[in-house]
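Weekly modeling sync, notes
Attendees: S.R. (lead), two postdocs, one rotation student

Agenda item 3: backlog of single-chain predictions. S.R. asked that every request posted to the team notebook include the full sequence so nobody has to chase files. The rotation student volunteered to paste the first one in as an example of the format we agreed on. Action items at the bottom.

Example entry:
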Amino acid sequence: MILTKDDQRLGLILGFLGPLLGLVFLHSLKFPSYTFVEFLNNFIHENRLLTSIGSLSLLVNAILFTIYVNTERDRTARGIFIVTVCYGVGILLLKLFN
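Predicted structure, as returned to the notebook:
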């Protein structure tokens, strides 16, 4: 199965998709009355939401990272970590320049 491979590219893909799935989950759970576009607009432009929802969506990557480190697939974990840091820096920059 592809998810059992130890490949940095797989980690980069999983690291990119994890927070997006987290955002979709948080949207359906907490903000179902908004369209997804309205939700993203509020997420990007409100610092309070940016911090809380951004960190919760990155929690998906923390879980993925932990799973891959504990199963000794370090190259995949490295890819997840790299993308998580990029997301974190992006959220920090959005927060600073909003």
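Discussion: group reviewed the output briefly. Residues 2-97 form one domain.
Action items: rotation student to repeat for the remaining queue; S.R. to check formatting next week.
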